Amino acid sequence: MPPWRLEAAAENLLGTGDLATFDGAEITISLASVIERGGKRAARSTLADAHRQTAELMREGRQLDILAEVARRYLDAAAAHALAALLREDLTQRERLLQAALQRRRAGIEQEAAPLSADAQRARTAAELEQSVRRAQHARQRLAVLWGSTAADFSIVPADFDQLPPVPSYQRVAGLLADTPELKWFAHESRLREARLQLARTSSIADIDWQVGVRRLESGSDFGLVGSISIPLGSAARADSGIRAADAELAAIAFEREGRERILQSTLVEAWAQIDLATTQAQRIDREVIPALNRAAEAAERSYRAGASSLLEWNQMQVEIVAARRERLDAALTAYRGLIELQRLTGQTFSVGTPQAGGATP
C-alpha cells in the first residue's frame, strides 16, 4: 500500500492526526499542531468582522443608488404624463382659436390665412401631444426594467407638480452627510486596514510547530515515543515589508476620506442650490407670470372677437402661456431631481410639504 494511502487512513482514524508513515515494517503515527503566538487568531477574527461590516455598508449604499434610480425613472414617467396633460389643454385652446377664426371667415371679416394658420398650429400641437404620450410609454418601460419586466402594463399615479418639494436648511443637510453609508464606509475601511496592520504585525512573531507520536520499531514489537518542536527564524524580517505596506494603506485612508468628503459636499451644495433656485423660480411663475399671461390672453380673445385685433395676438398669448407652464413644470422637475439627489447623498427622506421660500444660505 503506498505511504500516502496509509497516511490518509491513519489520519481518518485519528480524526485530528497529522501523519502516519509506512516504511516496510516501521509505522509512525503522530499528532502535530501549531501554537500561534502574537494574537494571530484574534487578528484574523477582527479582520473578518471588518470585511463583513464593510460589505454591509456597500450593500446599503447600493440600495440607496437603486432607490434613487427608481425615483428618477418614476419622475421621468410622471413628467411625461404631466406634459401630455398640459398639451391636451393646449390642444383644446388651439381648437377654440380655430373655431373662432372659421366663424369670422364665414362672416367675411377674416382672411383665409387666419383659419389655415390656426389649423396648422392645432395639428402641430396634436403631433407634439402624440409624441409626449409615446415618451410616457417609453418612460414606463424603463421603469419596469428595474423589476425585471419587459411590459409596461401599469399606469402611473399622476404626480401633483403644483406642490413643490421643501427646501431644507443647508446646515441640517450638511450635518447628515457624516452619517451617510459612503462616509461610514471609510470608518469601517479604516478599521479594516488597522486589522490588516495588526495581522501583519503578528506575523513577525514566529509560531511554534510541535509534533508527538508513537513509532513501532522494525526489529521487533517495541514502540518508541517521538517528538519535535520547531521555531522558524527570520519571521520579523520577512514580516517587515508587509507591515510597512499595511501601515501605508492605513495612513492613506485619511486622505482618501477627506477627498471623498469634499466631493460629496460639493455635490450636496449643488443639489441643495438646485432645489432652492428651482422652487424660487416656480413660485415666481405661479405668483406673477402665469396670472398676468392669463389676463392678457383673455383680453386678446375679447379684442379678437370684437374685431379690434388679429388672430396673431391671441395666438401669441396662448404660445406664451404654454411656454410659461412648461417652464414651471421644468422648474418643479429640477427641484424634485435635486431632492432625490439629496436623499441619495444623506440616506434621509425629506417629505414634501409647504415650500419654504428662499431656504438657508450655505
UniProtKB/TrEMBL annotation:
SUPFAM superfamilies: Outer membrane efflux proteins (OEP)
UniProt xrefs under Pfam families: OEP
A Gene Ontology molecular function term of the record: efflux transmembrane transporter activity
Gene3D superfamilies: Outer membrane efflux proteins (OEP)
Similarity-based family: Belongs to the outer membrane factor (OMF) (TC 1.B.17) family.
PANTHER family, per database record: BLR4935 PROTEIN (PTHR30203:SF24), OUTER MEMBRANE CATION EFFLUX PROTEIN (PTHR30203)
Name under which the protein is recorded: TolC family protein
Source organism of this protein record: Ahniella affigens
